[in-house]
Design goal:
The protein is 68% helix and 0% strand. The chain is mostly helical. The protein has a domain of 120 residues: Tetratricopeptide repeat domain (Serine Threonine Protein Phosphatase 5, Tetratricopeptide repeat, Alpha Horseshoe), CATH 1.25.40.10. Helix 14 packs antiparallel against helix 15. The N and C termini lie close together (9 Å).
């Protein structure tokens, strides 16, 4: 499922009105948005900031109510002013994107991220790290970027772990440290981060300091990376199937991987094939189809359908 930019739902219920919030949560998860909305609205009148955040999300996504980003921002601001870090972070998103009545303002986005980050909100800590890393909304500061990524990474935030690995691998604001980079990559991969899984696939595909080239391990990482959304991983899997590296040599399976990459592309934003990769794989697809008979091409399609049903639905 494509990941959404707008808001991340946090349903940690620490409010005294636990039973009512559980009723609202159950209705929300069951798709009964009317009941959930009514319960969240009632709770918001008791200054329940989590209910306010959910109302903000409902207006942002158009659940039961007409989508209205201005009202969404109003609910987020109410919750943020009462100290809710998730609402603070979501206001950061709103200023980052320029949603509703809020004009795009990277500096204000950073201010809200920082408030949430200082309250310990992991996603906001990651956003603060990103702001410092790329100089968006804040002055570029690689030392601060690393520190905020680390805070989020220690809370098991997969993208922060992956970005921290990149900083160590490329020596951003610190000496290159391959061992530490791989350690953070592995932690990110354990959290199913498709970029970390793909990077580990590349490392085992090529070999690196202290790591021997191993196509079997690489194939496993590439497969997991593709399932999580990295379409580019299918190019390596197609090559492996065609050459017999890392798996049994089988042109039908090679065609399956190419079809998955070019016809399904990606399950997440940011994981899509680059244009050169798409063109190269399309050429390989045409070549393979010219060497296989109709029955074999149909078999590749059947394998693709089976793979999708078992892993992507």
């Amino acid at each position: 499922m494509i990941r959404k930019l707008i808001f991340i739902i946090t349903m940690a219920l620490a409010n005294p009105a636990l039973a009512d919030m559980n009723k609202a949560r159950a209705a929300h998860e069951a798709g009964d948005f009317k009941t959930a909305y009514d319960e969240f609205l009632a709770e918001s009148k008791q200054n329940n900031t989590q209910a306010m955040v959910m109302l903000g999300i409902y207006y942002a996504e158009g659940n039961h109510v007409t989508r209205n980003f201005e009202k969404s921002n109003e609910w987020m601001l109410k919750a943020a002013e009462l100290g809710d870090p998730v609402a603070m972070r979501n206001l950061g998103y709103a200023y980052k994107a320029g949603m509703g009545n809020l004009r795009r303002d990277p500096k204000k986005a950073f201010e809200w991220y920082m408030k949430a980050a200082e309250a310990g909100e992991a996603e906001a800590q990651f956003e603060v790290g990103m702001s410092y890393h790329y100089g968006i909304g804040a002055n570029l500061n690689l030392v601060q970027a690393r520190e905020w990524y680390l805070k989020a990474a220690e809370q098991n935030h997969d993208r922060a772990q992956n970005n921290l690995a990149t900083m160590y691998a490329e020596g951003h604001g610190m000496p290159v440290d391959t061992e530490t980079a791989i350690s953070w990559l592995k932690k990110s991969a354990e959290n199913n981060n498709y970029e970390a899984l793909f990077s580990l696939g590349i490392i085992h595909h090529q070999g690196a300091e202290g790591i021997k080239q191993d196509y079997n391990i690489a194939a496993d990482y590439f497969r997991k990376s593709f399932i999580e959304g990295k379409a580019e991983a299918a190019a390596y899997l197609a090559e492996y199937a065609y050459t017999g590296n890392g798996m049994e040599q089988d042109p039908i399976t090679a065609l399956m991987w190419i079809k998955l990459a070019t016809e399904i592309t990606s399950t997440v934003q940011g994981g899509e094939l680059s244009e050169p990769s798409y063109e190269r794989l399309s050429q390989n697809k045409s070549f393979l189809e010219s060497t296989l008979d109709t029955k074999q091409i149909a078999a590749a399609k059947e394998r693709m359908d089976k793979f999708m049903k078992e892993n992507l639905e």
